Amino acid sequence: MLQFWAGSPELPVSGFIIRAVIVYVYIFLILKILGQRSIMSLNPIDFLFAVIIGDVLGETLSDGEIGLSGPFSSAGVVAAFHLSLSYLALKTPRFRRVIEDEPIILIKNGKILHEQLRKAKVTVESLMMDLRTNNAIDLNQVDYAVLESNGQISVLKKSKYDSLTPADMGQDPESKGYPSVIIQDGHIIDANLNKFADRAWLRKTLADNGFSRAADIFLLTVDETGKVYISDKKAGETG
Known about the structure:
The chain has helices at residues 3-6, 13-34, 37-40, 44-58, 69-91, 93-99, 114-120, 124-133, 190-196, 199-208; strands at residues 104-108, 111-112, 142-147, 153-157, 180-184, 187-188, 217-222, 228-232. The protein is α+β, with helices and mostly antiparallel strands. Strands 2-1-3-4 form a four-stranded antiparallel beta sheet. A four-stranded antiparallel beta sheet has the order 6-5-7-8.
């Protein structure tokens, strides 16, 4: 009855489907426990973890004879070890320098450090691409470019090329804060709405913008100053 768990040479298709769901949920829970760090940045330790977990659990989806108990136990041990290393790196700067690469300066004071490029194995073409993605097309405007430990390149422009800010103009505007989603794909998110106002406010806001139903709205957000953004469903239609 539990062939999908113990494994069998004649595991039916339904058994593989059940296994796929179980493995997916298991990996999802592991990532939730480890936190967003392992998802958002692929440091060497995170990359190693992803490769091992994929290899340990992936084979159970292609070979019906392999039981799930062993691979699941191994994946749990690897996840615990990975979490321990991450915690140790967080608490011990010296250890962190061992398992995480130090940032490498590729451009300093507007000059490209070609020896650092060679050390980091970054081509000129790759550097130029990353500069473009950081809105730094003109090299004359770049002061520093740093290869971070997660493989991304951070760019600092020379001060005279920085965008003009309200502070530069002697202004002190009110902070907008974090925008909250009130309506998403026609559904009202009451948990967010209750932080700002009530249904009466929402109906008035919709009416003021020419809408009568929340179902007509694809996205409605409001920031902490009360500024509202609305995108209706018709606006997203093509053809």
